[in-house]
Amino acid sequence: MERTKYNIPAGTKPERLDIYLSLKTGLSRGRIQKLIKQGLVQVNSKTQKASYKMRQGDMIEVAVPDEPENTLVPEDIPLDIIYEDEHLIAVNKPPGMVVYPAAGHRSGTLMNALMFRCKKLASTGAPLRPGVVHRLDKDTSGVMVLAKNDSAYLNLCGQFRERTVEKQYIALLYGNLKNDAGEINAPIGRAASDRKKMAIKTKKGKEAITRYDVIKRFKSAMLAKVSILTGRTHQIRVHLASAGHPVLGDKTYGKKVEVRAEANKKILFSRQMLHAQSLKIKHPVSHEPLELTAPLPDDMKKAVSELSGQQA
What we know:
Structural Genomics Hypothetical 15.5 Kd Protein In mrcA-pckA Intergenic Region, Chain A, 6 helices, Pseudouridine synthase, 9-stranded mixed β-sheet
C-alpha cells in the first residue's frame, strides 16, 4: 500500500478532488473515484466525495493498494496439443480451466501452462493474455488457437474480425427444438438487470447469428451441432436459452430443470454441456486451410450415453 500526502498551497483555485488527484498521481479519474469510494482518500483526516472542491490549506492523503502481479508465471500443467508450429499453437482446453489469470484465478490457467511450454508468445495483447485471439468460457471445452508471434496474431485477429473463421460446437440442450435445423438471429448485449450477464433484450445489442442442426433427440434433451457466424460473449448459451432450450448444466442461463434417462434416472451435469469441436482457419503464413478439431470430452460422452439409456 503506497501512501502519499499533498498539501494544497496558497493561491490554488478550487478544483474537484478527483480531477486534482488524477493529474497529480497519473491514475485515471475512474480509478481515483474508486479509491475515494473505498475510503482510501482523506481530506484533513476525513473522507469526502469526488466532487469535493479543495481549499487552500487542505491536506490530502491517498492510499493506493499494490497492483496485482502483472507477470504471467509459467506453470508445468499438462496440455492436449492439437497443432503446433513456430507461428501458432492450438490446444484442446479441458472444462473447468480458466483461459487467463484474473481476480480469483491467479494461477492454474491455460496461459500459465502455455507460457511454460512455449516460453514466448505474441507480445501483442494484454500482459496476462499474450497471443489470445479468441477465448472460451471456463466451463466450455474444446479448440483454442493462440499466436506465437505478432504477425500471426494480427493475421488471426483479422480472420476473426472478418468472420472468415468457421466455428463449430457440440451442445447438449434441454427439450426438443421443433425443427431439425434453424437459425437464431438476435442482437446480444449486456443485460440491464445484471451487468455480468448477456441478453437479447437490450438497448445496445450487437448483431449475433447462431445456426443449429439436431444430431440426436432424447426424451427431454437433444444433441446438436451449433455454429456461430459472430462471436459475442456467451452467444450460444444466450441464444439457445432465449429459444427455450438452454445448454444443459448452464447455471447462468439455464433453467432449473430435471433431465432423466430412459430408466427415469435423474442425470446431473457438473458444468455446461458445450464443446468447441472444430475451428477452420487459414494458416497465418502459408494461408493454407487448417482445420483444428477436438474430440468430445468424457463427461459429455457419459451424458449422451446416459440420455440414450445405456451404460456409460
